[in-house]
Design brief:
CATH topology of the largest domain: hpI Integrase, Chain A
Distance between the termini: 70 Å
Number of domains: 3
Order of helices and strands: HHHHHHHEEEHHEEHHHHHEHEH
Shape: globular
Helix content: 40-55%
Radius of gyration: 27 Å
Length: 392
């Protein structure tokens, strides 16, 4: 048996996804070609290190791509060739730098979703409204939508885990209409005698007619049938990622938003906006499907204003761009009256309230401090300066 066929067989034996199979086959093929078609069994640590060094220096791949190639070679030597050699543990592994996720504001999300074409708008709204990953949304089946409980069951997400997310009430009507169109597509497939959809884990043998039922049909089916890459059967598949990714990129350009955002940014924005609304970190962790709360904690860093909500001293200078005073935060001659019991010169901002309820928490001390905006006094007085300092 050829080496790549052995690799595919072992990957399928361990129930790895087809994406993992495609990636590992690609890197093993590249490794063999890099060493002039020599068999990997005849190569050692120096050959692996040379290939990885070439990827990092000549090809300048990212850290995640570098680690993926290393994982593919480790799988090849350990699982396929059965070589438990000590040098595998000595191969240097790149470390990924900690980076904050890109997050869109509420207004930016609204602009992008509005700019999406009709064929993709509902899917984009669903990603933002539930926090699902791109493939999790594309792989939804009709049976996973529960209108009675207003819930969506995400099957075999990252790490092969199931979870339940909310079904946004504002999308219920549009989703019902979309499912009616999907039902019409399903009826046309049945009339044309097209094979049923792909079922996981050989369920088509246990339930022979399940693949032909509407309950297992895709919520977002592909426009035309496609050939299954493993079985070679022509059947209806779910939509692919590339059409929505391209539509999202064009929507970002149309909205005039200069951020390196991708469809996954909708998931980051979902989590950040929930935390802004006062939901606790554990609730957000369960909705996102994170195994460790430390993964969810990255969004608490995004919530912080620049410098931990410290006001820059340049905002106190006058004559900068015609803003004057404290950076144009108000008209010095039109200071609003303070509420009873409020600190003079300090006015509550329009940040969202923190009503009690399930999964919600009261604002912390540092959050209450940020929820006030300092207004300039006219003329400046020592009391005004003291009030401004005490607000932060």
């Amino acid at each position: 048996m050829r080496l790549l066929d052995q690799l595919r067989q072992q990957i399928r034996y361990l129930h790895y996804s087809i994406r993992t199979e495609q990636a590992y086959v690609h890197w093993v093929r590249s490794f063999v070609r890099f060493h002039d078609l020599r068999h990997p069994a005849d190569l050692g640590a120096d050959a692996v290190q040379a290939f990885l060094t070439w990827l990092a220096t000549e090809q300048q791949v990212s850290v995640s791509t570098h680690k993926q190639a290393l994982s593919a070679l480790l799988f090849l030597y350990q699982k396929v060739l059965g070589q438990q050699v000590p040098w595998l543990d000595q191969v240097s592994r790149p470390q990924r730098a900690a980076r904050l996720p890109v997050v869109l504001s509420h207004d930016e999300v609204s602009q992008v979703l509005t700019a999406l074409p009709d064929a993709h708008r509902l899917f984009g709204q669903l990603l933002y409204g539930t926090g699902m990953r791109l493939l999790e949304g594309l792989r939804l089946r009709v049976k996973d939508i529960d209108f009675e409980r207003r819930a969506i069951v995400v099957r075999e997400g990252k790490g092969a885990k199931d979870r339940v997310v909310m079904l946004p009430a504002s999308l219920e009507h549009a989703l019902r209409q979309h499912l009616a169109a999907a039902h019409a597509q399903w009826s046309a497939d049945r009339a044309a005698g097209l094979p049923g959809v792909l079922l996981p884990h050989a369920l088509d043998r246990k339930y022979p007619r399940a693949a032909l039922s509407f309950a297992w049909f895709w919520v977002f089916p592909q426009a035309a049938p496609a050939v299954d890459p493993r079985s070679g059967t022509l059947r209806r598949h779910h939509q692919l990622e590339q059409p929505f990714q391209r539509a999202f990129k064009r929507a970002m350009q149309a909205a005039g938003i200069a951020k390196p955002a991708t469809p996954h940014t909708l998931r980051h924005s979902f989590a950040t906006h929930l935390l802004l609304a006062g939901y606790d970190i554990r609730t957000v962790q369960e909705l996102l499907g994170h195994s460790d709360v430390s993964t969810t904690m990255v969004y608490t860093h995004v919530l912080k204003l620049g410098g931990g909500a410290v006001r820059s001293p340049v905002d106190n200078l006058s004559g900068l761009g015609g803003l004057g005073g404290l950076g144009g935060l108000g008209d010095p001659g039109q200071q609003p009256a303070s509420a009873p019991g409020a600190t003079p010169g300090v006015q509550p901002s329009t940040l969202p309230a923190w009503p009690p309820g399930p999964g919600r928490r009261p604002p912390q001390a540092h959050e209450r401090a940020v929820a006030y905006t300092v207004l300039p006094c006219s003329p400046p007085t020592p009391n005004c300066t003291a009030a401004a300092a005490s607000a932060f």
